[in-house]
Design a protein that fits this description.
5 strands, 5-stranded parallel beta sheet, 6 helices, alpha/beta, 157 residues, Rossmann fold
Length: 157
């Protein structure tokens, strides 16, 4: 009998997260654990995009709606896959600072395991990652899923 009863997987809308969520679905299926797929729309990132001039302040509302809709579509797609595999799965899409919100959800849901994606290319470049901030905040074990170096198709993005 597994002590892992509830897994939370944190995701963005990208290929790294798609791989990570599929991994978490398989793990939840094997362990017969509940799965919660979490997507946080990063408020700090949107502020930064406006600050550097990529978007204008008057575009904020439309961008926010687009980001939230995109996140919901992503997690709902994977929720359907999880349910097809017999995994009890729910989703959360919310706004905030990614590592703080994920830590709060892990605590509220009393999750036994958090699954996140890791991109070794970013680490090799010496960039700190949201994953490191998450590790400092969450009270449960964290499983970092990474694909092999040869599988990173979006490393130049």
């Amino acid at each position: 009998m597994s002590f892992i009863k509830h897994i939370i997987v944190a995701c963005a809308v990208d290929s790294v997260s798609a791989y990570t969520v599929r991994y978490a679905i398989e793990l939840a299926q094997i362990l017969k654990a509940k799965l919660t797929i979490v997507h946080i729309v990063d408020t700090a990132r949107l502020k930064e995009l406006i600050k550097i001039g990529l978007f204008k302040e008057y575009e904020r509302k439309v961008i926010e709606q687009d980001l939230e809709r995109e996140g919901k579509m992503f997690v709902e797609r994977f929720q359907a896959i999880a349910k097809e595999k017999g995994v009890d799965c729910d989703t959360i899409v919310m706004w905030g600072t990614v590592h703080k919100q994920i830590a709060q959800i892990v605590k509220e849901k009393e999750a036994n395991l958090l699954v996140i994606g890791g991109n070794p290319y970013l680490c090799e470049k010496g960039e700190s990652t949201i994953g490191e901030l998450i590790l400092a905040e969450v009270p449960c074990p964290v499983l970092v899923v990474k694909k092999s170096r040869h599988d990173w198709t979006d490393r130049l993005l």
